[in-house]
Structure prediction request, 407 residues.
Amino acid sequence: MSSAQINVLGGIGFATTSSSSKRNLIGKGYFMPRSSAFFAIRNGTFTTLSYSRHGCPVRVFNEKVVGIDLGTTNSAVAVMEGGKPMIVTNSEGQRTTPSVVAYTKSGDRLVGQIAKRQAVVNPENTFFSVKRFIGRRMNEVAEEFKQVSYRVVKDENGNVKLECPAIGKQFAAEEISAQVLRKLVDDASRFLNEKVTKAVITVPAYFNDSQRIATKDAGRIAGLDVLRIINEPTAASLAYGFEKKSNETILVVDLGGGTFDVSLLEVDEGVFQVLSTSVDSHLGGNDFDKRIVDWLASKFKKSKGVDLLKDKQALQRLTEAAEKAKIELSSLTQTKISLPFITFTANGPKDLETTLTRAKFEELCSDLLDRCKTPVENSLKDAMLSFSDIDEVILVGGSTRIPAVQE
Prediction:
């Protein structure tokens, strides 16, 4: 048996492998830094990015360039510091920033965690999952706009607009995404103590030209010179140093907050070619959270006779507790959920106290786990490959830390 070292932002993970087996590379306990991909290849005083889609590499002399993972649910920004890529912590001290923008009735704009926290009490003015709409027309998003709490309308050209009644304005998706990008860049500028103006942004491999252009426009609106739009699975491969590989096939499994993307790549001496992609656009970590929320609400209703799903404040607390429990169950076999004063009745305050085991969590999510198999099978089928043809497997996204997902 040999030990394959994985370099991940924030630490080093190890996967034990044998020379005859395929490798499953997982940096447990660390955020998979797609946003650091731009910095994966270094050459002298400039940064070089090899990428087959558009030919020439990017070269930037003596300037700070950030790598940005603009996600459906969460986003992150990375910088080069001391010759190594580093995820920038935001003003709240977190390594990821919720891709959420909200406007209050007084006209104040909220971005990130502060916007996410008030989403339940201000649903019609809180914009999330905006990545689903960027660069798309109204006739392409019939299913997507049913999944959000804000109003999605079309302009005279059939383009998607997001309505904000709090300030009486309609936004293009790229305008909302620009607010998220601006916060990320502000955090990076604060960290570096210099103004950041150049970036590389990642997008799903299945994004079409319209979606890629709109993403680049979002960067421009945020005041950025977007040097390159790069495929997310390519970025993940670069972050693991696979650009040094020769003639290998890589399977990238990306389970984010709102979508599940699977891509097959072929890499040969720094050049990446996407062989196939498959996506379940309505399967992500949020769905696993919701199963816990529904379970907690059901238990509480049976024992206390109160439906917490109808209480906006209680629902917000349930959602936060569910996400925390999911994360803890990635390393523990059970977790305690304690929510004092979750609601009030005529008889006084009510508390929620319970224990959730990993086995129960997996039971609640059994159908979601089954759905994880389909995109993998479809991607292999489209590329006319079998799993035995895969040389490397990369798991990306926080929810790939769920043990049942890894299995």
Notes: The chain has three domains: 2-95+179-283+372-406, 97-178, 285-366.
